[in-house]
Amino acid sequence: MLLHIHPDNPHQRHIQTVVDTLKKGGVIIYPTDTIYGIGCDITSQSAIERISRIKGINPKKAHFSFVCSDLSHISDYTKSIDTPTFRILKQTLPGPYTFIFKASRQVPRLLQTKKDTVGIRVPDHNISRMIVEQLGNPVLSTSLPTDADVEYFTDPEVMYEHFGKLVDIVIDGGPGSIIPSTVVDCTSGAPELVRAGAGEW
């Protein structure tokens, strides 16, 4: 399904359609404040396995992120965050950043990596944040398969042509960006830049 949702004023009924699909173990392609992502409910093992097959990766070795609606979810899936790091989160989120933390035991077992870390995102985008709010827990997210042309990352209709048979819903929330999030590692004290992206650091 190609589902058009207004990026500034998402229709409640459309968001509910997406949430219902996620709760049934569905996989979606959806917009964020950076590139479009492919995602599912973090509690659905079958959906996580589907995304892993689409990308041709081992879920335990993959670079998945948890998309949260606000800072309150972050403490559920990460170990203790010190005060200076929390101040940085408050200054930069919601925004185009992925912060890597030590994972808590609430991270689903299928996603527990050898490094025992988790990437956290709070996008500054109404559609993705409303989906997570109504779902009630984070959305597991990763980038689309990287062997595709740039149009597959920016044009929802082209994404639907290319990936529509592999996922349940492709959300058309307008053109996407080609610049990914800025990734910051917070696992060893002082935050360290891992990848420069859309967010200033």
Keywords:
201 residues, alpha/beta, ten-stranded mixed beta sheet, globular
Walk me through this protein's architecture.
The chain contains seven helices and ten strands. With 201 residues, it is of the alpha/beta class. It has a ten-stranded mixed β-sheet with strand order 1-8-2-3-7-4-6-5-9-10, sandwiched between helices. Helix 1 packs across helix 5 (126-135). The longest helix is centred in the first third of the chain and has 12 residues, at 12-23. The protein is globular. The N and C termini lie far apart (37 Å). The relative contact order is 0.24.
SSE arrangement:
Elements: E1 2-4, H1 12-23, E2 28-30, E3 37-41, H2 45-55, E4 65-67, H3 74-77, H4 83-92, E5 97-102, E6 117-121, H5 126-135, E7 139-143, H6 151-154, H7 156-163, E8 169-172, E9 182-185, E10 192-195
Parallel strand pairs: 1-8, 2-8, 4-6, 5-9
Antiparallel strand pairs: 2-3, 3-7, 4-7, 5-6, 9-10
> How do the strands of the widest beta sheet line up side by side?
1-8-2-3-7-4-6-5-9-10
Number of helices: 7
The parts where pLDDT drops under 50 for at least 5 residues are none
Global structural class:
alpha/beta
Q: Mean pLDDT, nearest integer? A: 88
Give the percentage of residues in beta strands: 15-25%
Order of helices and strands: EHEEHEHHEEHEHHEEE
Rg: 16 Å
